[in-house]
Amino acid sequence: MINDKKSFSVKELSEILKSCFENPYFKNISVYGEIYSLKISARFAYLEIGDQGQKQTTSPLLKIAFSLFYGDDYHIDEYKVGDVVQVRGNLSYYPHGSSVTLWANQITLLQSQQGKTLLLKQKTLEKLDKLGYLDKKEKKPLPKYCQRVGIVTAVDGAAYQDILKTLHDRFPTNTVLFPCQVQGKNAASTITKAILKADESDIDCLIIGRGGGSKTDLSCFDDEKVCLAIARCQVPTITCIGHTIDIAIADRVSDYRAITPTEAASLINPSLEDIRTANADYYFKFKSAIETIIYNREQQLTYFYQQLKSFSPMSKIRNQKDKLSIIHRRLKACKDQILFRNEKRYQSLDTSIRSQWLKILAEHKFKLQSLFQRLDKTNPADKKIKSQIFFNGEIVDSIDKIHESDTIKIVFKDGEALSVIKEVHHA
User: Fold this and answer.
1) Residue 82 lies in domain
2) How many distinct structural domains can be found in the chain?
3) Is residue 354 part of a domain?
4) Mind listing the pLDDT tens digit for each residue in 85-115?
5) pTM beyond 0.85, yes or no
């Protein structure tokens, strides 16, 4: 049987706790502390505050909620993680989640600084910078192909599975897990030990990180010992802490920084698809280069062959023979052209001379005939002839030599007369 004076049901205890927090003493109370986390949505704003001056991993936390339903945003976006604020509101107990929340209606900035944690972070950064661990020129390059990849993360975390899947899908390789805590009080020391152990192992590179989280969860990656272990690691390191608003110091000292574990794994080794594409590209370039070399060598061989042919005796004889043939054709063409021009001149001169010669002959013939006629007139043997008929300088001795309308010359013993033939009658 249950002892009612010493045992309560869960519901009864929850109602007791709820009634306690509904006590007027917890109404309109004021509390101050350092903001560890800050989230703002369309309807609510949530803060986590803790005692200033204590480590975030050990400080008690108080959840603060603001309702933004009525348009009052309390200018929450002006506050930053690390600020020290004073908040006023009512405490509320939520039985379903067994959580205590301060529903605030007022917030006041007490110290507009980064808070002790961020100041400590700044000092750590300054120390690491003096040691040269933040210099980008000192970052170690990743090997083109990694055969063994070390992983420092939680064994049961989603980050580990994401890294394994991405590595296997891209380019299967061997992995070695160095498990550690990635949040909580002992996270920094376990991470440091895991990194030191990994650095002593036979690995080609090291992935360190987790799958994101609040500033409180990620504070271990700002620890000085963790960052020194990363900076002094002999193999290239990749961090994937996943906090983009406030970059962890571990991201600053590592050789490569990735936002997610998947991205971190993608930095290691080329993917099989990339290799196939690169091989195809190399094959095409190699083939083109070989074809170009072969073509150039063929052109050179052809040139050398032509040169050898040109230097051979038979080639020289053929060349001289070709030159003689060309000269012969040119001389023949010149000769034909000269002969053609001279032939034209000779024909023209021959025609002109012939014409002049015929004209001269005709004139002398006419004169000779006239002389003969005169001689005949004085010839005693021809005294019996009383007259003669001439046409075109010739004696007409037949009726067939004259025609109608011809003009004839009649020579008498005592003179000459011209007559036009009107009619011709044949016997």
Assistant:
1) 10-113
2) 3
3) no
4) 899 998 888 877 778 888 888 888 887 555 5
5) no
